[in-house]
């Protein structure tokens, strides 16, 4: 069986209202309480506050992953706003649409970071931003673009691309023919082997199976994500939703590894397991992971 490999792990944190998000399996998540239904309003309000208090009147850009996994660090500059708090956090319905509108009102361009969500991983769409009904001005992509071969790409409008001609830009590795032919082969394979559809089918199955574990274990606080882009948030108990401490996370992760599956973690407290396996895995592979993860959770609960 192909191991479940995570491309990278960073400690990052969910947005301030993420805890109020419902236990969701699909995006957009339904809202179960009044508080959760207000999440979008509160996120937008917070963004407006950032615009009025923390950045210049005109901003350069807004950088956001369609599902947040990474950190903001790589995108920050003094007049650029970044959303990238991590923990596999999904935005409330319409947030990105409203955020893009506010950014454009401030003169900024909207950048979708598709490094992790792109190339069909979320199942329903080839690009993560499509699920939000927005059209970015710039899209950045990497990782899945060449199935691990070092490659990245930026796609933008002609107008923005023209502005690059004002200065000299070059990259030693830019346009590398080997990388380009690998990227092209990967695109063919995604299409021919219906990899995006596989992400939807196997990912939905995996989300459903993980949701059963959520109902079984007190320490499994939330299962969320889309396709094969899944976060499992671990808590000390479901009432407090306090993050499961790092030692406990490590024990479960190591146990899972010893039984043959690699997973990663993220979120500011490192409390969210990141399940982003190769996009070609089968339902049987997913079931193997669920059995292993179930065992690791059981072992931890017994030891406690
Ligand atoms: C979502 C996301 N965006 C951006 C980056 C940064 O990519 P790079 O390390 O190639 O600058 C990463 C890298 O891990 C990522 O996961």
Bound small-molecule species: pyridoxal-5'-phosphate
Strand content: 5-15%
Low-pLDDT windows of residues: 1-30, 72-77
Based on the structure given, which CATH architecture of the largest domain is correct? 3-Layer(aba) Sandwich
What does the radius of gyration come to? 20 Å
Name the CATH class of the largest domain. Alpha Beta
**What would you give as the CATH superfamily of the largest domain?**
Type I PLP-dependent aspartate aminotransferase-like (Major domain)
Number of domains: 2
Estimate percent helicity: 25-40%
Largest sheet: 5 strands, mixed
Shape: globular
Mean pLDDT: 86
User: How does the helix and strand content classify structurally?
Assistant: alpha/beta
Please describe what this structure looks like.
With 304 residues, this protein is α/β, with parallel strands linked by helices. It has two domains: 28-192, Type I PLP-dependent aspartate aminotransferase-like (Major domain) (Aspartate Aminotransferase, domain 2, 3-Layer(aba) Sandwich); 195-303, Alpha-Beta Complex (Aspartate Aminotransferase, domain 1). The protein is 36% helix and 15% strand. It has eight helices and eleven strands. The strands form three sheets. A five-stranded mixed β-sheet has the order 3-1-5-6-7. Helix 2 (39-53) runs parallel beside helix 3. The longest helix is centred in the C-terminal third of the chain and has 22 residues, at 195-216. The protein is globular, with a radius of gyration of 20 Å. Residues 1-30 and 72-77 have low confidence and may be disordered.
């Amino acid at each position: 069986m192909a191991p479940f490999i995570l491309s990278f792990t960073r400690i990052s944190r969910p947005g301030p209202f993420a805890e109020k998000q419902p236990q969701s399996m699909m995006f957009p998540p339904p809202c179960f309480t009044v508080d959760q239904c207000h999440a979008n309003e509160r996120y937008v309000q917070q963004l407006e506050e950032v615009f009025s208090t923390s950045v210049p009147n005109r901003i350069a850009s807004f950088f956001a992953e369609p599902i947040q996994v990474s950190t903001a660090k790589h995108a920050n500059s003094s007049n650029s706003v970044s959303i990238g708090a991590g923990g596999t956090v999904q935005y409330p319905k319409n947030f990105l649409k409203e955020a893009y509108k506010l950014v454009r009102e401030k003169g900024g361009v909207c950048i979708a970071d598709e490094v992790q969500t792109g190339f069909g991983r979320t199942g329903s769409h080839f690009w993560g931003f499509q699920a939000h009904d927005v059209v970015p001005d710039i899209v950045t992509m990497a990782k899945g673009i060449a199935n691990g071969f070092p490659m990245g790409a930026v796609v933008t409008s002609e107008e923005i691309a023209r502005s690059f001609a004002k200065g000299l830009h070059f990259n030693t590795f830019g346009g590398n023919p080997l990388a380009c032919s690998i990227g092209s082969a990967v695109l063919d394979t995604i299409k021919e082997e219906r990899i995006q559809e596989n992400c939807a089918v196997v990912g939905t199955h995996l989300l459903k199976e993980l949701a059963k574990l959520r109902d079984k274990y007190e320490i499994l606080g939330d299962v969320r994500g889309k396709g094969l882009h899944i976060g499992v948030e671990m808590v000390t108990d479901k009432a407090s939703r306090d993050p499961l401490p790092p030692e406990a996370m490590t024990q479960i992760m190591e146990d899972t590894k010893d039984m043959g599956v690699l997973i990663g973690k993220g979120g500011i407290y490192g409390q969210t397991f990141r399940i982003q396996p190769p996009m070609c895995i089968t339902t049987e592979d997913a079931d193997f992971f669920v059995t292993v993860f179930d065992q690791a959770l059981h072992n931890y609960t017994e030891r406690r």
